[in-house]
């Protein structure tokens, strides 16, 4: 019996959690379609915190600066060079299909001229003395982009709100319900203003962790918002009374359970403008992150933080322009796609067209071939998108396993896309069956690259093909039997990389590394098998361990790594990027040894909102 690709395998991944409301009714599917198709949005954190370049709201909440001095930034917020049309043009050219702007963060400063009781706003209280939200929304709508409005449920500056800072409360909600009801009216008034004045396509809540659903009156809030627009999309941060999940900063290792989800992510380590934060991810890292998110069926909401004068930092402009280069080259492989193949079928990133008749492979390296397993049908055509001279030849076996060969290909500097077309919706076989050549057969393969890939994959799956083979731990004095057909080049590669092959164990499960791997017997050294020529640093996700050192197997070079999006107060690991010098790559397959501080510990939990920004 065959399994429908979009049905059986992903059945468990379309389940929802909490009260997330967007399900599979025809009305919900229609409402969510533009969002699911969009893939890329741009988040904008802009407020008075950009004046001194300090953490938005959290800086006074955590008592790094007192509230009075924080609010003095109102006197420096000029927006003097603010050009909303230019912002929107930059966003649209990046390939984004929607944008979400902070209408009011936790500090309580509204970008529009709010008439709510005791509201603080840019038009009334800041140096700018003008509404900076309206012209941006107008420009968004004129451009055809969808409008998203971020709104913080808590307002730590408002006299009716119970919490002021981490160590200071204004009152106990249970003892002063009247004051709390005044706050409810305040924030409901602001939501009504945003709904009537701007008709948003999406409302992005934040800060729900400070109170219960009942205290926020979340159900009533949701009903009220949908009176203004029955098709408005709400994120899950209204105590899960919304339509989609919002993992924050940490790229999910495994796909979120919700059918609809969006990763909100910074370019550096800050949401708002901070002049001393130069820890920017490269365009290559962010384009690969976008491909990763698309392959798991989600959207990337990438953040920018404009300065107080309304200009966007050069580093952020360049990143958006680089995204635009890639998205404009591969639009058919981005927009309207759905999550891709399981890791067991393809050791890489991929996506499917909406009708299931096209499969897109995202290649993060220049290489000769790729393998896909367990397809119920073979492609009618295969091509390299954006490369008229490149050719893809493919063969398949009786188990539905496909080998693609890339010829005369001009690989993209970041991510190359291969398109496979089928004459009907792609389906997967219920189980994967592979021929598992013996070591003798593999050493007789005429093509060394094919042989070492097969060796690496069998070891990754736990098939110890070197048991009693004559392989030694250091590759010296090997006694692997030879015949007249033995490929000496393959034996040389085995000898060079023996430590990653000798008595090693099954590799990492899906999601941690976009390739095959093995683990040392003591589980403390992770071996990553790197195909071809990577376009950027090798990426690792969900590794809880500290890293002692990283080296290239068989030639001793120590290499550098960096960690991004590691929150120091959280046990959630960051993403590890390993720099592999191109001049040290093995022509057949490179192996990297990652020495951990203790036996490997993996993070595979759900990634949620950051609820405590210390």
Automatic annotation (TrEMBL):
Keywords: Glycosidase, Hydrolase, Signal. It comes from Chryseobacterium piperi. This is alpha-L-fucosidase. It comes from the Bacteria. Residues 23-330 form the Glycoside hydrolase family 29 N-terminal domain. Its EC number is 3.2.1.51. One of its GO terms (molecular function) is alpha-L-fucosidase activity. GO terms for biological process: fucose metabolic process; glycoside catabolic process.
């Amino acid at each position: 019996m065959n399994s429908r690709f979009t049905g059986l395998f992903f059945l468990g991944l379309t389940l929802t959690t909490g009260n997330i409301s967007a399900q599979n009714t025809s009305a919900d599917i229609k409402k969510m379609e533009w969002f699911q198709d969009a893939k890329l949005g741009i988040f904008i954190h802009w407020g008075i915190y950009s004046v001194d370049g300090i953490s938005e709201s959290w800086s006074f909440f955590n008592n790094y600066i007192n509230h009075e001095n924080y609010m003095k930034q109102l006197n420096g917020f000029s927006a003097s060079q603010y050009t909303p049309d230019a912002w929107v043009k930059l966003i649209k050219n990046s390939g984004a299909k929607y944008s979400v702007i902070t209408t009011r963060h936790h500090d309580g400063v509204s970008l529009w001229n709010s008439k709510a009781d005791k509201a603080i706003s840019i038009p009334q209280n800041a140096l700018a003395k003008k509404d900076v939200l309206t012209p941006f929304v107008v420009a968004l709508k004129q451009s055809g982009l969808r409008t998203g409005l971020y709104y913080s449920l808590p307002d730590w500056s408002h006299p009716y709100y119970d919490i002021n800072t981490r160590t200071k409360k204004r009152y106990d909600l249970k003892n002063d319900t009247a004051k709390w009801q005044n706050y409810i009216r305040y924030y409901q008034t602001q939501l009504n203003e945003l709904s009537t004045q701007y008709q948003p396509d999406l409302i992005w809540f934040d800060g729900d962790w400070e109170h219960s659903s009942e205290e926020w009156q979340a159900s009533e809030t949701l009903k009220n918002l949908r009176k203004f627009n029955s098709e408005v999309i709400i994120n899950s941060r209204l105590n899960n009374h919304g339509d989609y999940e919002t993992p924050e900063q940490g790229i999910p290792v495994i796909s979120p359970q919700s059918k609809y989800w969006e990763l909100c992510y910074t370019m550096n380590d800050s949401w708002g403008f901070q002049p001393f934060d130069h820890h920017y991810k490269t365009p290559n890292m962010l384009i690969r992150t976008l491909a990763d998110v698309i392959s798991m069926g989600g959207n990337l909401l990438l953040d920018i933080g404009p300065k107080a004068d309304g200009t966007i930092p050069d580093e952020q402009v360049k990143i958006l322009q680089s995204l635009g280069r890639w998205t404009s080259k591969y639009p058919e492989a981005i927009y309207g796609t759905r999550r891709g193949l399981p890791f067991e079928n393809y050791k890489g990133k991929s996506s499917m067209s909406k009708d299931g008749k096209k499969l897109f492979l995202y290649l993060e390296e220049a290489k000769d071939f790729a393998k896909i397993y367990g397809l119920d049908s073979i492609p009618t055509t295969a091509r390299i998108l954006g490369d008229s001279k490149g050719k893809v030849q493919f063969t398949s076996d009786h188990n539905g396993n496909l080998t693609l060969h890339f010829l005369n290909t001009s690989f993209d500097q970041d991510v190359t896309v291969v398109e496979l077309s089928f004459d009907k919706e792609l389906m997967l076989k219920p189980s994967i069956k592979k021929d598992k050549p013996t070591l003798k057969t593999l050493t007789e393969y005429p093509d060394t690259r094919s042989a070492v890939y097969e060796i690496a994959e069998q070891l990754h799956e736990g098939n110890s093909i070197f048991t009693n083979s004559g392989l030694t731990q250091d590759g010296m004095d090997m006694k692997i039997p030879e015949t007249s057909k033995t490929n000496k080049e393959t034996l040389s590669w085995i000898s060079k990389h023996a430590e990653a092959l000798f008595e090693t164990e099954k590799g990492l499960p899906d999601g941690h590394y976009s390739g095959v791997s093995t683990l040392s017997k003591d589980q403390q050294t992770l071996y990553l098998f790197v195909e071809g020529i990577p376009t950027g640093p090798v990426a690792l996700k969900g590794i809880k361990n500290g890293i002692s050192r990283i080296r290239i197997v068989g030639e001793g070079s120590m290499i550098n790594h960096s960690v991004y999006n590691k929150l120091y107060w959280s046990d959630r690991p960051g993403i590890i990027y390993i720099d592999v010098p191109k001049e040290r790559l093995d022509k057949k397959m490179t192996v990297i040894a990652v020495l951990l501080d203790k036996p490997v510990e993996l993070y595979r939990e759900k990634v949620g909102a950051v609820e405590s920004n210390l």
